[in-house]
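Good morning,

Attaching, inline, the backbone tokens for the sequence recovery test we're adding to the shared suite. The designed sequence is right after.
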């Protein structure tokens, strides 16, 4: 019986596998404004005009905006299907995206979804800088299909830093005017010691285990 308690506790304490970390809000600096060139997105926060895009001569892409303090297209849980639900950005505008989480996470990977409808802009991101806790590293993307780019942090210096925010910057892309698009961002995380408390069931079992151990000792003395 004693060994069964030990085995059960071991199962309860196995760390959870990686899972999506909900993005509570996000900011974008130097985003091409929604509606430009027919590209559109939603955002609940403040949008402040900052100037003109480097791609302003292409298809009417004019004003740049800073998006702050809100939620929208990038974290609405919907993978875009066309240019009407995606953020359009240009490498030469030096945009960056700040993601915020409601609790600490260890970031394992990041998926940058766009869409697949024959447009040449989605899937054009070839690399991006990821900054966590004051540390920045450049990552080449993989799976550069027409609907997603994958950034794998596993084994990097950033993989085990518990954080409640991260920054994506210094994007490299391959399409017209270095344009790229993102319709949804998914951050896959592994548990941190700060966010994974001992399960209540394990606490109960540990208490019971102490009682069982005391009873066994009493029987031996008897």
């Amino acid at each position: 019986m004693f060994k069964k308690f030990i085995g059960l506790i071991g199962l309860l304490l196995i760390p959870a596998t990686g899972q999506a970390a909900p993005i509570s809000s996000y900011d974008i600096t130097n985003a091409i404004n929604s509606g430009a060139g027919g590209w559109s997105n939603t955002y609940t926060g403040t949008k402040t005009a900052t100037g003109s895009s480097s791609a302003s001569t292409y298809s009417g892409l004019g004003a740049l905006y800073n998006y702050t303090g809100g939620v929208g297209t990038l974290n609405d849980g919907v993978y875009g299907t066309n240019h009407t639900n995606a953020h359009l950005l240009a490498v030469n505008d030096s945009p960056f995206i700040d993601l915020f989480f409601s609790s600490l996470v260890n970031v394992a990977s990041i998926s940058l979804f766009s869409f697949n409808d024959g447009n040449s802009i989605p899937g054009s991101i070839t690399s991006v800088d990821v900054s966590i806790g004051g540390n920045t590293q450049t990552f080449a993307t993989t799976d550069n299909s027409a609907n997603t780019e994958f950034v794998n942090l596993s084994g990097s210096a950033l993989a085990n830093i518990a954080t409640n925010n991260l920054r994506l910057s210094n994007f490299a892309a391959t399409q017209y005017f270095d344009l790229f698009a993102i319709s949804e961002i998914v951050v896959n995380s592994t548990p941190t010691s700060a966010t994974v408390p001992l399960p209540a069931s394990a606490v109960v079992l540990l208490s019971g285990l102490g009682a069982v151990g005391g009873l066994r000792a009493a029987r031996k003395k008897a």
